[in-house]
Amino acid sequence: MHLTRLSLTNIRTYERLELELERGIHVIAGENASGKSNLLDAVAMLATTRSQRGGHDIDLIRWQALRDETLPGGRIVGEIDKRDGQTTLEIAVVASENDSDANRRTSRRFRVNAVARRASDLIGQLRVVMFSAEDLTIISGSPSGRRRYLDLTISQFDPTYVRASQRYSRVLQQRNSLLRRLREHHGSLDELDFWDDELTTAGSVIFQARAATLTRLGQDAAIRYPTLGSPNEKLSVRYKPALPVALIQNVPRDEFESDFRSAIEEGRQQDVWKGGTQIGPHRDDIEFQISGRDAAVSASRGQQRTAALALRLSEVALSCEITGDPPVLLLDDMLSELDANHRKRVIETAYEVDQVLITTPDFDRPTASELPDAIRYRLVMGTLNRAEESL
């Protein structure tokens, strides 16, 4: 799997970009704030429909377009060569007409092979694994960031998970709205029956997919971690589902859904008091331990980086295992931050996949000896040229 063409129109720092790509390793050099990360984030959006950075859709549209155009919009188009043929993906973000950018509404439109589709039809058509300095937050950041990591990872190879996540979010919003009304003594607990059933069905799919994925990622990452320079340390990755203790051990089992439904019903009164749903995958977390200690609290920055790198390398292996086709690797200003051993491991992985996009602030790094076959580009003021064309 690889991208053959990428087109950006009014996306963040890019007014217009047309890039023809081939298999292999592509190194994009540019100064800080030149738009390197924006480029890789646009590629990642084609895979997941979501920015790796989070934020609002309005932030995707180039600032100048917001200022000058009546109905500004941005567009990302990618052509992908896959085992089953060529596929064209398109994401368009359009802002409403409004005097204030802060109050503008946005809408998103998706196309697959020029046919209008839902977001869920786009997700997973292209698969990527993105390495960046932000990966440290998987270890040390917030639970919501770790849940986001899980969603972006699993969605790319499990369409059932995508549908369940979308359904769960809508149901959770409706159930919480009803809980707040019940707290004000409007209605009865029986009104929760429908929403509890829906929450159970969608939530069970999410719980079990997360448990299975983290088991596989955790086992592989535990093997990789010592080889990355910490032979005397042990990494463990543990899923922490937001469930009653008695139910946690039952997540992979067939009877889990009925047990989860019972737990939701038993917690109704507390949910009413709190005005929100207290158990469910929207409150999940992941725990990383290094030699038995919480990595988020006790590990050094170097240990956290090694753990995050082991996790990302495991993600590449898992994606290949599940789909039989390697993902596109995106390395955002990563190699310059890694020591020689870590850099070697990432480069070895790069040569195992069909396509890699690497950004760097230094045109000479990674060196020609490290990546002798790389195609190199210079990025200046939103314009990208192959190195021999920019001389």
Verbal overview:
This protein is of the alpha/beta class and 391 residues long. It has 2 domains: 1-127 and 328-391, Rossmann fold (3-Layer(aba) Sandwich), CATH 3.40.50.300; 133-324, RecF/RecN/SMC, N-terminal domain (Glutathione S-transferase Yfyf (Class Pi), Chain A, domain 2). The protein contains 14 helices and 15 strands. It has a 6-stranded antiparallel sheet with strand order 2-1-4-5-6-7. A hairpin with a 2-residue loop joins strand 4 and strand 5 (85-95). It is globular, with a radius of gyration of 22 Å. The mean pLDDT is 91.
Brief descriptors of the model:
single chain, Glutathione S-transferase Yfyf (Class Pi), Chain A, domain 2, 15 strands, Rossmann fold, 391 residues, alpha/beta, 6-stranded mixed β-sheet
The name CATH uses for the topology of the largest domain is Glutathione S-transferase Yfyf (Class Pi), Chain A, domain 2
Approximate helicity band? 40-55%
Radius of gyration equals 22 Å
What is the multimeric organization of the chains shown? single chain
| SS class | alpha/beta
The low-confidence runs, each spanning 5 or more residues with pLDDT under 50, are: none
Distance between the termini: 31 Å
CATH class of the largest domain: Mainly Alpha
Which descriptor suits the 3D outline?
globular
Number of E-type strands: 15
Secondary structure elements and pairings:
Layout: E1 2-11, E2 14-20, E3 24-30, H1 36-48, H2 63-68, E4 73-82, E5 85-95, E6 106-112, E7 115-117, H3 119-122, E8 128-132, H4 136-140, H5 143-155, H6 159-183, H7 192-227, E9 235-240, H8 245-248, H9 256-266, H10 268-274, E10 285-290, E11 293-294, H11 295-298, H12 301-323, E12 328-332, H13 340-350, E13 355-360, E14 375-380, E15 383-386, H14 387-390
